[in-house]
Amino acid sequence: MDAKLSHFVREKGNQSGQLEWVLPVSYHFSLLDDYLKVSLSEELYAFAGNFDFNGTERVGYQTLVATHKIKLSSDLLKPYQYGTHTIEWSAEYARQNYLGDGLVTYNTLDRSLRRDFLSREPFDDRVTLALSQYWHNNTQSLSAKQRISQEYYPDRDKKWGDLRHELMLEYGNWRISNLLEYSFRYQGLSEMSNKLQYHTKQFAVDMEHFWRKDVELHKVLTNEIALHAHYQYNDTLKLFGSMTYDLEEKHSKKWRSGFRYDKGCWAVELSYEHDTKPILGATGGASLSSDAFRVKVSLVPFGESEISQ
User: Fold this and answer.
1) Does residue 271 lie in a domain region?
2) Which residues constitute the domain of residue 62?
3) d(Cα 266, Cα 304) in Å, to the nearest integer?
4) What is the pTM of this model?
5) 3-state SS record for 46-109
6) Domain annotation covers residue 108
7) What is the pLDDT of residue 252?
8) Dist. CA 166–CA 245, nearest whole Å
């Protein structure tokens, strides 16, 4: 059983004190000479909390949810002369039962309270289908991974959820990956990500293009390019930097640079960061820029503390 007690405090805006706990139970077995694997699971989730809504209203929320799942899966592995191919598939049925009036109360909560403080949201009965395959050559210098997943909602008018496709190719120090999400409901792409990475023991650079769209409103939410790099000067000192450029607004969105000194049991990180956010001004579009100097201290195994100015 996992239990967590949290208290969120802000100078302005929503605040919350809450208790949540999870009790999971699962049972696994195989059939057909291990070719078919079966997993049965039950999970009981409880939440009790109070929200201070912008300092003007206090709202209480309690819920008890039972989640039932059954999953069928299998994996096949075949060696070849130059490498090994693995294929996996799974089909999972999941259902939620809200005990009491928790679902009714959830639907009356303000959306900002749900976004800020609730880690779980209700879902309809669903079937998740997934297919993955992997290839590794014998020298481990080349590998490929592909994964496709699809959700199906039997009780909805629009039964098919988003189709998600992931592809990754790795050769030596290079890695290329792609992610696509397609909405059958709105018949269009909802998310796309392309990443190119080069990593060695001393040096690493990542370049990524990320695009996301609200297909219901036909509005692009994110369209940006990000570049990240670091250089391991020696065993203890690492230099790093990053930059993000907004292709929709055509301006630099964020950049950051600094260094980290790591002695294993403790570490200090110093960085300088510039951030530009678009805002709606009195005369139209505008932007708000902020600069911050950050100091982060890490003590193993006690955690991290960060100060920014």
Assistant:
1) no
2) 1-68+92-122
3) 10
4) 0.76
5) EEEEEEEECCCEEEEEEEEEEEEEEEEEEEEEEECCCEEEEEEEEEEEEEEEEECCHHHHHHHC
6) yes
7) 86
8) 24
